[in-house]
Write a structure and sequence with these properties.
41% of the residues lie in helices and 12% in strands. The chain is of the alpha/beta class. It is elongated. 29% of the residues are buried.
């Protein structure tokens, strides 16, 4: 005769095993929720960091350069030295590093195309000049040239924007480039910074 008590004893242990297996469900769900929250926080942090890195540095001078697209074959008497915009030559200066001065009027045209023009005093130390050369080589639309008579060792210019710096290794120089290289101030976005005049060194 079958002992029913033995069968009844087996049933609770099966129920307990099922209960144990089901207890993993809430743990997995909670882990998934925590992972989503952590991922969201990481994305927000990256976005905030990118926004901070892309902002302009303190001390940028806003310059009223008038309307874009005004061409002249003559010499322009600019209000600022170096100029940060205004009337300019129909030809633009090719971006890159120059070890001799370039014409204001062609450099201004390159600014109109979204370039950053970095000018430096001719007596800037050689290691800093090399840093500026490296910047020109690593960016498609950066123009670098010496500029006699500067009132600061290094001056960075974009269309209608200008920043004076004490040295080429000032981190605000890179910040200026990030903010204004083909930035929202560019009158002719998408225009070329090559195919103009001048041969970089």
């Amino acid at each position: 005769m079958t002992d029913r008590r033995d069968g009844s004893r087996n049933r609770p242990s099966t129920s307990r095993r099922v209960g144990r297996e089901r207890s993993w469900g809430p743990i997995i769900a909670i882990t998934a929720v925590v992972a989503v929250i952590v991922a969201f926080i990481a994305v927000v942090a990256v976005d905030l960091g990118s926004g901070a890195a892309g902002g302009p540095p303190d001390g940028v001078q806003e310059i009223d350069v008038g309307e874009a697209g005004r061409h002249t074959e003559g010499t322009v008497d600019y209000d600022h030295s170096p100029p940060a915009g205004g009337e300019h030559n129909p030809a633009w200066q090719n971006a890159g590093f120059y070890d001799e001065s370039v014409q204001n009027e062609t450099a201004v045209h390159t600014l109109e195309h979204g370039a950053v023009w970095i000018t430096y005093t001719p007596d800037l130390p050689g290691d800093q000049v090399q840093q500026l050369r490296d910047l020109a080589d690593s960016h498609e639309c950066v123009l670098v040239s010496p500029y006699p008579g500067l009132d600061a060792p290094v001056v960075a210019s974009a269309w209608g924007k200008q920043l004076r710096l004490d040295s080429a290794d000032d981190p605000e120089l890179n910040q200026f480039i990030q903010a204004y290289l083909r930035g929202p101030q560019t009158p002719e976005p998408g225009a070329a910074c090559t195919g103009g005049v001048g041969t970089p060194a």
